[in-house]
Amino acid sequence: MRFCIGKCAEVKHTGVYSYPYIIADIYPSRYLLKHRGNQYIYNNYNPDLTMNTVEPLRFYDSILPYAKCTGSNYDIGFTHGKVGAKQIRHCMKTYKNLYKIDGGIEWPDAIAKTQLFVPVLKEKCPDLYEELQGVADGSGFSLEDVVALNCRSEICLTTHTDGCTSVSQINPDNGDLFIAQNWDWVGEIVDGLMILDIEKEGKPRMIMVAEAGIIGKYGFNSSGLGLVMNAIMSTASDFSHLPIHLAIRKCLECETFEEAYSSLQDNGVASCVNLMIADKSGKFGTIECSPVGFVPIQPVDGQSFHTNHLFGETKFVKDFPQDNSIFRLNRVKELSVSAPATANSIRERLSDTKNAPYSICGFLKPGTGIGTFVTVDTIIVNVNTGVGELSIGKPCDNPTRYKLFFE
């Protein structure tokens, strides 16, 4: 159920009423609750009289909170923080536990470490630093807490990695270009997810599937650029570069692959990650990023793939690959031979269960902490049309798909 209070940031399709009201979405019905005296009275209503008909399975009708963020940098962050306060609290709790279990790092130590990034944040992205302040104020956490959350990769992924599998593929006949990933992480993080829909002056509108409180994550924008990511375990780090999630956000504010790549080179990346990027001109590929340098990997036969280890021709840093990452890379390549460039085909490949629980469609692993990672969600975007789909949970379970799009 999603409640939208009149004139609040979450209401996208309401008409104007002269009295307080609440829109209640209880799928498949929608109710209008009108204020009368000291109570609300509900009734079914004709949506054509008050709002555009909401088609089933749109992304803002998913189980995830949805925040439409506009205005100043601070306002964008404040809306994010206000709408996602509960989910941010869950993410804070989750990462406090993970830092301690997997790295022996207490939260105050994490804050102290990540405060070393503040000078570069103020220098290279003061606008995003203002947004982080808005997230903090909107959610009721301190700015130091929010900075530490946004630097979670610089803490978690120096000793552990996740299990993401990424694919991009172009259809040479019609220009459709798909970019997709299974995001594998600790299962409990699902209660900390939200959808961010950000409109910032002078930048493309963007839709991200985010861990609440983190302002950069995989998604796509209205200029036709899409981005997904793969964690890489390495001890390499540099506090003079942008943390991974801030670097990702800067990329999503770009209009082309080349512009995004230039942003990475200009701002640097503080730790290791692979970013798969595509734009509607048909340019796509994957970039292995480290604090020392970048290794672009060109598509082969109209497809790109990546998992959680470095395999580019040049290795600037040492990584620590796990066998399941190598298996998943080889497996997705095998499944992709002669596979059509369609969302359904890509979803089928991302649903593969061979070698479970360490399969492309990841199952819960034994143990505790990060090592238990499971497929949390799947995103598939056609950057040529600006339409994608999101599902929560393992794709092999055939979960509900929600349409991602710009109106």
Automatic annotation (TrEMBL):
Originating species: Kuraishia capsulata CBS 1993
InterPro entries: C45_proenzyme-like, Peptidase_C45, Peptidase_C45_hydrolase
NCBIfam families in UniProt: C45_proenzyme (NF040521)
Highest taxon in the source lineage: Eukaryota
Protein name: Peptidase C45 hydrolase domain-containing protein
Coiled coil: none
Ranges of residues in domain Peptidase C45 hydrolase: 171-361
